[in-house]
Amino acid sequence: MARTSRDRFPDDVISLSVSESVSVGTLLPLPTATDPDHGRFSVTGYRLQADADVAATFELVMSRGGGDGALSVQLEVRRALDRELHDHYSLRVVAAHGDARGASNSGSVDVRIDVVDVNDNRPRFEGEGRYEVTVPENLARHTTILRVQASDDDDGPNEQVRMCVSTIECRCLL
Ligand SMILES: [Ca+2]
Ligand SMILES: [Ca+2]
Ligand SMILES: [Ca+2]
């Protein structure tokens, strides 16, 4: 029996979104490839094509279940995500089959994983977050005596900074 058909995924490219606060061990669903051939030429496994960093972050988990015994595949999050370090990952999942003569006619799907931001960073003032300024006693009213700047590593509304002023200490030097 000659192999005549490619293993096929429903789409060539898929996109997933996952929160950067996702727990290690979380499983992300992937589409299952189908193979028009039968027997030893059916889909028997999946393998990951990715660089070392991606491969250390995600791992394929295969299971065979359901009434038809089809082999399903999921992506397991292997280590904590941090959107501020990596906001997306790209990898390829290749469907393997029973024919050991090579992968030239295997099907594949390219997966893009976007890491969704959570508000896990506080605003930081430039410098050490401590400012000192000396002003003359006859300073004119409404004179600008200090400018401060703060930034936040998060994204979108999570990086917006709101400032207020409070008096924490007032010393009068005689
Ligand atoms: Ca983070
Ligand atoms: Ca923030
Ligand atoms: Ca964040």
Structural commentary:
With 174 residues, this protein is mainly beta. It has one helix spanning 52-57; strands at residues 13-19, 27-29, 43-49, 58-64, 71-77, 88-97, 108-116, 124-125, 150-151. It contains 1 helix and 9 strands, in the order βββαββββββ. The protein has a domain at 13-116: Immunoglobulin-like, CATH 2.60.40.60. 3% of the residues lie in helices and 31% in strands. It is rod-shaped, with a radius of gyration of 27 Å. The strands form 3 sheets. The protein has a 4-stranded mixed sheet with strand order 1-7-6-3, with no helix packed on it. A 3-stranded antiparallel sheet has the order 2-5-4. It has a two-stranded antiparallel ribbon with strand order 8-9. Residues 20, 82-84, 120 line the site of one calcium ion (CA).
Q: Strand sequence of the main sheet, in spatial order?
A: 1-7-6-3
The helical percent reads under 10%
Radius of gyration: 27 Å
Low-confidence stretches: none
